[in-house]
Amino acid sequence: MERRLGAGCKYRRPHGAAVQPAYSAAMNSTSNHALQVLTDRCVRCGLCLPHCPTYLQSRQEGDGPRGRIALTEALARGELAPTPRLQQHLDGCLSCRACEAVCPAQVRFGELMDRGRALLAVQRPARVRAARLASALLRSRPRRRALSLLLRVSRRLGLVGLARHGVFGRRLARAGALLPPVLAATAPLLPPVAAESDVLLFCGCVTELAEREVLEDAARLLTVAGYRVGAPAAQDCCGALLQHAGDLERARRLARRNLATFGGTGMVAAITSGCAASLRDYAWLVPEGGASFAARVHDVGWLLQRRVERLHFKPLPLRAAVHLPCTLRNVVGEDRAMERLLCAVPEITLEPLQPAQRCCGAAGLQIVTDAAAADRLLAGKLAAVRQRSPDLILSSNIGCSLHLAAGLSRAGLTTPVMHPLRLLAQQLQPAG
Ligand code: SF4
Ligand code: SF4
Question: I need a surface site. Which of 74, 133, 272, 377 has the fewest CB within 10 A?
Fold first, then answer.
């Protein structure tokens, strides 16, 4: 049987080959029915191909959205086995969702890919275990505190330097290079939730560790803009790592906890667009109540822009390159609001970090597991920084910021990377 995979595809089910029992069992599940509905939407028009960064690099059908949809469909039907090559095609997807944003048939590609990876999860327990371990380490505040302490001690003993030089293996070298200079040892100082809170701040585990002060900046900016902000103490991780590794059950459990914690009608604000995108995905991940919760989720920049007339900033005569993360552009869809908000700072010159519509290569754990691909995608952005020499780079997604900072450092470039809310809080004029 030949699948309709387009030119150049070599995937065929051998004539007469039996469907493997493990896959045919999966075929009957509710999840596979949902997957079938999703793949059926694709009309194979190929309009998404010129927008897919991985397809543009390899020009192979299996590395583009249309090919990945066909492979996932065949996998779900039990017509293809999860060979290493097939897994490579699906794993290569950055979940940037540029394809979803341009698809005329409104194929929900993010959901499709996560459900497809869930089919593969059984075949590769190590990958799922890695995501579970990372999630377990990052989710709890005491463990985060221990991690921060461990890092400080390791730095003092020179272990981080050794890791960066590859003494403990390639993956740890990569992880070491991505570490920010400081990991927060304490929780951010944020207002608790009160009866009148109309904005509930979602913190995010990596954000709390690496950008603690940005959370405090966000609360301050929102308060000056007239919102009554509160940060629910019992909030959990958004579940992105588990979701993209195919562990949908565990991701769903975290989502349900957050639904219970963020009850009510207040808007839910995230400072990291990756978290905001995952919270929006609760719409399909949690059938009961997920969609109404997702509709309340916004990027902090969008909320501030709605009340920009209440915010007054000091002039800042410098040139900033704005990196708009894929999650903010293609999933949350509030990238223009952040740009407009930054324009409220007098004398600042903004320019997009080119190539503006392309993923920088930071894509969840892939930033570590497929470093070569991540660096190939970053190369264009680094070339633009070298050519344009901006005074700083602004990015509202922690994964992109760490990837950009590590790449700049490797390239010998000293341009600082900053969260836009940090800049806005620094320029905020005192009220009155
Ligand atoms: S995902 Fe959408 S744009 Fe891409 S081939 Fe399918 S229908 Fe066309
Ligand atoms: S999510 Fe991004 S990388 Fe994956 S298929 Fe779509 S455009 Fe390509």
Answer: 133
Exposed, middle or buried, 431 (CB in 10 Å: 0-12/13-18/19+)? exposed
Residue positions counted in the chain: 432
Q: Is the CB of 5 under 6 A from ligand 1?
A: no
- For ligand 2, the distance from its centroid to the CA atom of residue 344, given in whole angstroms, is 33
Query: How far, in Å, from the CA of 63 to the mean position of ligand 1?
Result: 14
Of residues 239, 238, 233, 245, the one with CA closest to residue 87: 245
- Rounded to whole angstroms, the Cα distance separating 328 from 419 reads 13
Q: How far is the CA of 52 from the centre of ligand 2 (A)?
A: 5
Domain boundaries defined on the chain: 21-123, 126-178, 199-305, 311-427
What average pLDDT score do residues 4-15 get? Answer: 38
Topology of the domain comprising 311-427: Rossmann fold (3.40.50)
| Ligand 1 mutation pick, 43, 68, 96, max ligand atoms within 8 A of CB | 43
Would you say the CATH fold of 311-427 matches that of 21-123? no
Q: What CA–CA distance (Å, rounded) separates 15 from 264?
A: 56
Ligand 1 centroid to Cα of residue 55, in Å, is 13
321 in helix, strand or coil? strand
Q: Cβ-count burial of 142 within 10 angstroms (0-12 exposed, 13-18 middle, 19+ buried)?
A: exposed
SS3 labels along 128-148: HHHHHHHHHHHHCHHHHHHHH
Lowest mean pLDDT among 124-133, 286-295, 321-330, 396-405: 124-133
**pLDDT score of 24:** 40
List the structure tokens of 179. Answer: 């570490």
Percent of the chain with pLDDT over 90: 64
Provide the pairing of β-strand 349-352 with 297-299. Answer: unpaired
Higher-confidence residue of 408 and 166: namely: 408
Angle between helices 109-121 and 125-139 (to 10 degrees): 110
Q: Which amino acid is at 253?
A: R
Assigned CATH for 21-123: 1.10.1060.10
Report residues whose beta carbon is within 6 angstroms of any ligand 2 atom: 51-54, 65, 68, 93-99, 109
pTM of the full predicted structure?
0.87
Q: Using one digit for the tens of pLDDT, what is the confidence trace for 102-133?
A: 999 999 999 999 999 999 888 888 888 888 98
pLDDT for 192-247, tens place per residue? 999 999 999 999 888 888 889 999 999 999 999 999 999 999 999 999 999 998 99
